[in-house]
Amino acid sequence: MKPLRLIAAAALPLLLAGCLEVDQHPAWLKGEYAGKEDPRPYQTRFHNDRMAWWAAMENRNMKQNEYNRANP
Length: 72
Description:
This protein is mainly α. Helix content is 54%, strand content 6%.
């Protein structure tokens, strides 16, 4: 009787392993994504001006360069 309980106790986690798995894929309706679109950073902070956003990123990158910061 004891080996049967041991087998049942070992099989229970295997049987319940996939019960709580949820679908990871977004919903698609009529061939298109049915969720909220995420705005791009230049759309929200720079009023859809992509060149201003790019210039800000370039300036930020230049200030993180130690060679450019060390030379006055």
